[in-house]
Design brief:
two-stranded antiparallel sheet, mainly alpha, 40% helix
Amino acid sequence: MGITRDEVAHLARLSRMSVTDDELDALAPQLEAILSAVARVSEVAAADIPPTSHAVPLTNVFRPDVARPSLPAAEALAGAPATEDGRFRVPRILDPDE
């Protein structure tokens, strides 16, 4: 059955992609291989097997959120190259008028 150049060109037009004739010739067999692989997976998928997002079960690896003392502001700012009003001063990256 195979994907034709015309079908690839139609898909390219739908996706607003500009493709050359050489690309059309290269993409047709690649799309055919992709569709064949999807068809094989569809054949194997059984109705009694629930869909999964991971091959192995996952467990929550987060630690409990516990408040603890942090570094004093003066000590945190001590190594900064520039500070202003008790905060880190960083170079401006956006125009103030924007």
